[in-house]
């Protein structure tokens, strides 16, 4: 399907267009079933404008169904690839403090985006520090971008195509570290933002998980909280995300956070914390083999890994750069299977060649943020952002595309100055979003959902097993109690114990019996409590159950 | 697949328009463009006169003949090799096909006929043409072209106008 822009044109176009306008002023109504087909082929600006034609069009053009169909129509347009665009958050030196400007530019370009590239300024999120708004995830999720204002602890969602900005309700409670991810639930066809905040609650680490859907007035708790078995992984992931700016990645209907193993005391069996947007449950992915178990990895080493989504697959990028050029490389490992956590090497970018090496060895921070191209529009290229070039321009940020087949690196954005004040070491600020060219339509991977369900099941199953076991124990106790009581009871006139030892045994038996009965009663109440909490689905109760498992 | 007929004549697809006019095309031609012909082949059997009849009784003969014309051209183009030349020639043909003498009523009828036999290529072409006619116009002009009454309240109109304030009209 193609849109109105590709309607065959030639030199006579203008003449014909005028003629067509003259002929078509007959005022014939378009049949209803044809309206959708025609409107799907219009560009976005026309769609936004035509909402003002009549009420039924306003409803149709704003509906979710139409938006998904139109998105598919645009992304299947292979014949005329759109040039990739970059959404930039740029320091607003000329504007007053408290505003942040976003620009939409097309590479290749030098920094200092032109004024007519200005998308909008976030004027109504005042903050004492200017330029405090950062982009959270470098790849947009179905056209929406999540922005974060750290000092104000407020999130905003912006749509680069329609220039609409939604301000999410800010967080006012106490909290240590927070992170959030934006994803798209293909089943209900709505966007969801998940926010994780760690808090200390009576000397216990508590993670609050809240979900926001556009249109809601406030955040609501996620359907399932973090299971106890993943609690310390989640804390590590949240801290890693905030302190080292390792943002979550959305792929296959899941949000993924990378766990920082140096913050975890136990052996890191899991590398990635996952959150299913459809089910709103947490899961984990096993760590790759190069995460040697049992060896605490140093902080500096754990900084050198991050997640990225390439071709709808989750990948870990390893930064294996060293002083020796021939031994430096960037490795990209992709996840093959959510269930058994198999990772395989997908690309290795050797940094030994002169040009590639110079651009990628020099900067302090290198992040792979996505890929572009692939089927139909040319070779697939990997997009890499770098920051803090040490030897050349200090504090500069650059954007490159790397062609893995021809091993060629092309710098498409450079000269971008970082914020005025020098950042603490290791700080990476996501300054751009790669909007890409043609994007494959990703309706969520059903296998991913199945795999996550399989991962979540053991928790449910083991909870059930535990409850059965508890009930059994209760019954066993009752049986023992009554047996002992009956055996030691001689009030009904059975042969009384003749010897002193016998009598002592009797008393002992009765004491035991009563003791067991009391313990059994308490245990019974306990078990009943567990069962009702499990039936109600109370997350606190489930955590208590998990504690026993 | 349909049962093979005993005779060796080519199978035909007949479209019947308003007024009982018949338009025939070989089955192979119809299969290229029409999705319903492709799907129907799994279910129908050819009997006797070797032809599949499709009734389009509320559509005038002219759009139906244009439809058959389109299918014939598509089938011929499908056999020739794809090249930039061929693409250019196709674009020129499409322009002549929906030329100056095609008015709005004919366009809609053609679209209805295309939808009846699910000729996706023609649906796409006509929709593109209509979209091209209305793209870039103001809402009032659209209403005039399509004969629509304005039923928005002033509040709704203002809301949309502020949302769209960044669009250069």
Please tell me about this protein's structure:
The complex is a heterodimer of chains A (549) and B (169). In chain A, 29% of the residues lie in helices and 30% in strands. Chain A is of the alpha+beta class and 549 residues long. In chain A, the strands form 6 sheets. A 5-stranded mixed β-sheet of chain A has the order 3-24-23-22-21, covered by helices on one side. A 4-stranded antiparallel β-sheet of chain A has the order 4-2-1-25, with no helix packed on it. In chain A, a hairpin with a 6-residue loop joins strand 22 (381-389) and strand 23. Residues 8-25, 93-98, 418-427 and 437-458 of chain A have low confidence and may be disordered. With 169 residues, chain B is mainly α. Residues 1-7 of chain B have low confidence and may be disordered. Chain B starts with 11 loop residues before the first strand and ends in a 6-residue tail after the last helix. The longest helix of chain B has 19 residues, at 61-79. Chain B is elongated. Chain B has helices spanning 27-33, 35-40, 61-79, 84-97, 104-116, 120-134, 139-146, 154-163; strands at 12-16, 22-26, 51-55. In chain B, helix 1 (27-33) crosses helix 3 (61-79) and helix 3 crosses helix 5. In chain B, 54% of the residues lie in helices and 9% in strands. Chains A and B meet through helix 1, helix 2 and helix 3 of A and helix 4, helix 5, helix 6, helix 7 and helix 8 of B.
Which topology of the largest domain in chain A does CATH recognise? Neuraminidase
The percentage of residues in β strands of chain B lies in 5-15%
* Strand order across the largest sheet of chain A: 3-24-23-22-21
How many domains of chain A? The number is: 3
Structural class of chain B: mainly alpha
SS element count, helices of chain A: 11
Characteristic key phrases:
heterodimer, A: 549 residues, alpha+beta, Neuraminidase, 3 domains, five-stranded mixed beta sheet, four-stranded antiparallel beta sheet, 25 strands, B: 169 residues, mainly alpha, three-stranded mixed beta sheet, 3 strands, elongated, disordered N terminus
């Amino acid at each position: 399907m193609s849109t109105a822009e590709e309607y065959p044109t030639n030199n006579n176009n203008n003449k014909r267009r005028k003629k067509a306008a003259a002929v078509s002023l007959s005022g014939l109504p378009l049949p209803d079933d044809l309206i959708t087909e025609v409107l799907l082929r219009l560009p976005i600006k026309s769609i936004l404008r035509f909402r003002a034609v009549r009420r039924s069009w306003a409803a149709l053009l704003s509906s979710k169904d139409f938006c998904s169909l139109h998105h598919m129509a645009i992304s299947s347009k292979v014949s005329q690839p759109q040039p990739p665009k970059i959404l930039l958050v740029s320091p607003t030196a000329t504007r007053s403090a408290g505003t942040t400007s976003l620009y939409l530019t097309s590479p290749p370009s030098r920094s200092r985006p032109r004024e007519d590239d200005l998308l909008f300024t976030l004027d109504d999120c005042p903050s004492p520090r200017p330029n405090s708004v950062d982009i959270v995830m470098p790849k947009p999720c179905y056209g929406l971008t999540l922005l974060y204002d750290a000092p104000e602890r407020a999130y905003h969602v912006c749509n680069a195509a329609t220039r609409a900005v939604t301000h999410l309700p800010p967080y006012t409670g106490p909290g240590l570290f927070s992170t959030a991810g934006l994803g798209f639930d293909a089943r209900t066809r709505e966007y969801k933002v998940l926010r994780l905040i760690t808090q200390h609650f009576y000397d216990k680490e508590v993670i609050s998980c809240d979900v926001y859907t556009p249109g809601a007035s406030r955040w609501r708790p996620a359907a399932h909280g973090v299971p106890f078995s993943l609690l310390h992984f989640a804390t590590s992931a949240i801290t890693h995300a905030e302190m080292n700016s390792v943002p979550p990645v959305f792929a296959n209907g899941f949000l993924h956070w990378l766990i920082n193993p140096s913050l975890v005391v136990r052996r890191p069996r899991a590398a990635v914390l996952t959150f299913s947007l459809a089910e709103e449950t947490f899961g984990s992915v096993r760590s790759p083999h190069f995460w040697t178990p049992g060896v605490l990895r140093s902080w500096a080493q754990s900084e050198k890994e991050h997640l990225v989504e390439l071709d709808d697959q989750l990948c870990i990028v390893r930064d294996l750069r060293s002083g020796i050029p021939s031994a430096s490389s960037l490795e990209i490992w992709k996840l093959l299977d959510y269930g058994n956590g198999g990772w395989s090497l997908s690309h290795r970018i050797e940094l030994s060649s002169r040009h590639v090496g110079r651009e990628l060895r020099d900067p302090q921070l290198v992040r792979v943020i996505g890929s572009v191209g692939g089927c139909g529009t040319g070779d697939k290229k990997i997009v890499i952002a770098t920051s803090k070039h040490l030897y050349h321009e200090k504090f500069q940020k650059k954007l490159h595309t790397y062609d893995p087949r021809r091993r060629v690196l092309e710098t498409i954005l450079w000269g971008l100055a970082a914020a005025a004040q020098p950042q603490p070491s290791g700080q990476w600020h996501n300054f751009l979003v790669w909007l890409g060219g043609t994007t494959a339509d990703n309706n969520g991977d059903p296998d991913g959902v199945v795999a996550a369900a399989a991962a979540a099941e053991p928790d449910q199953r083991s909870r059930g097993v535990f409850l059965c076991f508890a009930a059994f124990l209760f019954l066993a106790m009752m049986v023992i109690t009554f047996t002992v009581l009956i055996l030691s009871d001689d009030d009904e006139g059975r042969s009384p114990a003749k010897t002193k030892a016998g009598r002592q045994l009797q008393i002992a038996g009765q004491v035991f019996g009563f003791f067991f009965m009391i313990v059994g009663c308490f245990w019974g109440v306990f078990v009943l409590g567990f069962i009702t909490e499990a039936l109600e689905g109370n997350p606190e109760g489930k955590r208590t159950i998990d504690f026993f498992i | 697949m349909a049962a093979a007929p005993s005779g060796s004549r080519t199978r035909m697809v007949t479209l019947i328009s308003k007024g009982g006019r018949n338009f025939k095309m070989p089955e192979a031609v119809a299969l290229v463009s029409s999705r319903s012909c492709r799907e129907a082949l799994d279910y129908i059997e050819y009997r006797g006169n070797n032809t599949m009849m499709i009734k389009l009784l509320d559509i005038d003969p002219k759009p139906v003949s244009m439809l058959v014309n389109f299918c014939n051209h598509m089938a011929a183009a499908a056999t020739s090799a794809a090249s930039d030349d061929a693409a250019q020639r196709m674009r020129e043909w499409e322009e002549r096909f929906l030329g100056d003498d095609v008015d709005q009523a004919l366009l809609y009828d053609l679209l209805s006929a295309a939808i009846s036999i699910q000729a996706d290529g023609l649906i796409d072409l006509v929709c593109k043409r209509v979209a091209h006619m209305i793209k870039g116009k103001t809402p009032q002009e659209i209403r005039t072209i399509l004969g629509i009454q304005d039923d928005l309240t002033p509040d709704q109109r203002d809301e949309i106008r502020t949302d769209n304030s960044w669009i250069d009209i």
